[in-house]
UniProtKB/TrEMBL annotation:
Belongs to the chitin synthase family. Class IV subfamily. One of its GO terms (molecular function) is chitin synthase activity. It is a multi-pass membrane protein. Its EC number is 2.4.1.16. Keywords: Cell membrane, Coiled coil, Glycoprotein, Glycosyltransferase, Membrane, Transferase, Transmembrane, Transmembrane helix. The chain crosses the membrane at residues 37-64, 79-97, 117-137, 143-163, 175-199, 205-224, 249-270, 282-307, 319-340, 378-403, 808-838, 844-861, 873-892, 904-921, 928-952, 1093-1112, 1140-1161. This is chitin synthase. InterPro entries: Chitin_synth, Nucleotide-diphossugar_trans. It is found in: Cell membrane.
Amino acid sequence: MEKQQRHEFRRSWDACREVPIIQDEQIPKKRVQCLKWFSCAIVGILVFVLALLSKTSFILLITIGNNQTEIISSEKKPTALLGIGFVLVGPSVLLLLKSTWKFIFKSAAMPSKKTVLWVLCVEFLVALGAAILTIVAMPHFDIITNVMILNSVSILSAVFQVVAECLAKERKRLIMLPVCSIFFIVLGYVLFAVSYLVFESSPKIKVSIGLAIVGTICVSVNWWENYSTLFSVSSLEDISKDIAQSRNVVCIISSLVRILITSAVAGAYVPLSGQDWKSVKLVFETVVISLVAIQIASSALCHWFVVVACKMHALHRCFALPIYLASITVLPVFFISFAVKPPESNQTNIQAISSDKLLLLMLTDAMKTLHASNMETGGLACLICSAFSWWLGLMLSTFYIWFLKIHRIERTQDLFVRRMYEGAFLEQSMLLNTRFEIRKRIKEKQCAKETIRVFLCATMWHETYDEMMKIIISMFRLDKYRPKTDKHSDVAFEFHIYFDDAFKDVDNGRQRHANEYAEILVDVIKEVYTIFSEEDPCIFKQMPPLPWQKIINTPYGGRLEYTLPKGNVMMVHLKDKQLIRHKKRWSQIMYLYYILGWRLNKKYFKKFEAGEELESLKERLKRDKENTYILALDGDTDFQPSAVMLLIDRLKLYPEVGAACGRIHPTGTGPMVWYQKFEYAVGHWLQKTAEHVFGCVLCSPGCFSLFRGAALMDDNVMKRYTTKATEASHYVQYDQGEDRWLCTLLLQQGWRVEYNAASDAYTNAPQDFKEFYNQRRRWGPSTMANTIDLLGSGGLTSQKNSSISKLYILYQIISMAASILGPATICLMISGSFVFILKLNENIALALAIVPPTVYLILCFKLKSDMQIKIAAIMSVLYAFLMAGTILSIIGDLVKQKTFLTPSGLFLIGMVVLYIITAGLHPQEFSLVIYGLLYFLCIPSGYLLLAIYSIVNMNNVTWGTRETGSQAKSTAVDTIKKKVMNAICCKCPCLESEEDLSQEILPAETITKTEKTHIPLETQRAHELPLHPHQTWIEHLQMKSYDFPLHESALPMDEIDFWRELLKKYLEPLKENKEEQEKIANDLRELRNKVTFAFFFCNALWLVATFFLQAIGDSISIKIPKIYPNGTYDANEVFSLDPIALMFLLSFALLLIVQFVAMLYHRIYTLIHFVSYADTEIKACRKQSHQIQYSNYQHETDEPDTALCFQNPSVLRRAVTSV
């Protein structure tokens, strides 16, 4: 009681808190809302304008083909009919090209004969109907009919909807919409026939009316596939499934049929109508060509923007509404010509008319079709009523779109039934092609929505207090974002931390206790738990005690199980390296087999033993594997919940995606971090986006990547990942870059790896030159080994993986060649610097440029790695001065030459402009351009010296980072403990003075350059706890965490058996065998020597070839005249380039252009995904938070108000900011 009173007293005066400051890169909500509304407004306007432009240009082509119009002479009317034919086959040609590409480089599945026969019949009917309607019938009608008769192609879709609703036994009010649609379309047919047959009767018009009605009905068969699965007809369902599996071949067949039938109808109709094809010249009328080009381009763009609108989750305001309005706005556009006096048409000199007057003339000419019909008021009224009826029929038959539920970035094949639009029926085809689902099935799909389970697995070793704080707060933040409730949730999270080497010897090796790093982690979890569970920091409210958590002894060491404030579970697995194999890859194997092998399979195996149906269990297990994700993390990763959700979207909607990674931002201070910030930025901006767009990402970094359970459990992935390194190449490929090797296994097995630029994660980067070089010493050889492995199996991989084509393999070969020849290229650049600055002969400059790296290469074979790094650091500084002089010399040369159109000037300016534009398209990261200058100065260090150091030290397979901080930190902690023990033994109530303590800790802190040692408050209070020499590690941690109680628990026996079997088969500690270690060391040296010889032999060949080309001189050099900025050139002054240098410059420029185009494409789809996320996820979170606030308010109002609480707003604001 007295202790509690003392605690309450201390809490009353010691109420100030230290809230951790976590880097938060979330965009402000107002900016997100503005971006969302601006994007939706732009897309909606573009859809409306493009649809209007497509429809207007097509109707103008129809009216030009009418004999009543005068824009072109009657003998040239076949030109307009040919233009209509081009409009009809335009989408088919695009579809043919796209499907042929996919057939060659992706899927080549063949359909059955029944499917081919069905497709031929349907496509023949649709193509015939479209050609007869647009080429034969519509040129005889007036402008009102031509604008609106296309809407009647929805009649069969409405009939199919009625049948589907009846079979589904839905409520009658839902069936009334398609019924009314059928009524209005039929009414439109009747009024249309009456207006012509009663008020204007002629034999030709009667035939045209019949052909028009039959043509629209034939065209309406086009969207049969949208309803094929709703009629319970097995043959139709089989055909639909076969079409889905062999979509590329089916599209090729349908495109060819469309082109052939349209060409046949157009070719036969002209002679049959008394016209002559001879009047069609090789060069068509400019008006017709322009209209065809405008129609095809606007239709294609409109289709793309409609897809964008749907993926942005703006289906209503950016797709349905603009399309409906565009369909009827065409008429007012034509009626505008009544208000403006048009110019008189002159067929002989029509090209002399300006474009705006020509447009007005065509609109007025189109209105003549209405006057030429000689209809009375009754006939016009019938026409207007029929037009309105058809428009209403289209609206009602596609009204289901307003109830359609779609996902973020929905797949195009899930949005639309057919792959392409119809050129002549753009609005109708886009609306009717949208996938139809009856309301009952939508509700069933929502109820049957499966929960995605995400296991966050972080690997730790010797992280500092600040680094641990980042990852723990990120996990707690995610726990708050998706609380674990009884209600159905779309995503469920579980957190795991796998702590390597978490134990140490105590009591002269007789016992093992958790080391200081594990103790710090326990303190960090307690501190963060307190922050996130303390919603109201008011001093007048009694703070509830922290809940009991579990501490468990396990076969691999120990486990801490926490139930987080919002109900999610976090497990900390403390690994004892004497019991289980340590290092990162083995920690990954540990959680892969625990989560996927044990947790996932166990429940289904028990159900099988209980007698459940085998096929049902297989299907459910398959779905569970697909819906189980693992988020691989490092122990210092900082991320926001939105970053995780954006990665989940990629795997959730695209079943072929096996892994997805985000944008990794290095954090820290100092020149080395600045260099890495720009290096990471360029790598993600250009290289990773190009890999994503043209093929697959080759490396999904282990610090922040989401993996699909089904992909990891696939053949030759998880099982092969357990392979113990037995050969020299295995040590390089398997253990030096385990994340890249895992991605290589996924790619070879046929899975896709993607990159999401909107998913940001932050991780500490090496701040010291030595640590940076050691990190890249691991990454460089492992990258090369895995890339060579992938390219070596390129043929087989491209067969199994539809995302990797032969062209992408070629792209990677070129990139690999550029990487290998990087040192020689840098030497050539340095040689050019000598020529610019010192005015040396080119060959002498090349020799001087080669000498320093050659000497460094020899020294690397003789000296220890630490000395190699020191020499590299000194040479990096000297090279930086040289690069600075090179920049100034190039600029001075441009001034001297009075032109920037020189090879060096164009290269420098082009690179600067490209990087600035690229950075401008990443506005949040634009400030990184500042570090671009440092990056340029360090190019020789990063691409020459580092390459030499990495290749020569390939035989060094140690980790290289976080190996110096251990000793420093343990020294600091041991100093504290010695003071504690002295104080306890002397029965002193206090420790020595702080000055003496800091003086003894200071030397230990100076050893650690890359870490900030933070001794938690609980460690400093250790004198309050009695220390027992024979206590277990559980008792020791329980005593240290006395105010965050840990209750000792035990594992189930079946799980203990699992861990024992797993340890025995895959994770037993590796036994030291000196003979085997010596053999591996010799093999690694031999491998190093071979790779070094091959690597630098290629560079030597490149340099020797350049040397001889320069020695030969002008006879083979390529002369480029000097061009001034005003366009003039001086034939007497030329620049000389040898062929190899020119080829390299062109190849490098082409590579950059390809990557830049890929970056533009990727930025567009990143914006689409982000806007879609802002429009859906943020709304859901706001709704959830309102519900929680309301429930809390209800709870508070039900309780009596016992105390008046004064709260400091600034404290609350800081707490919210930290979350």
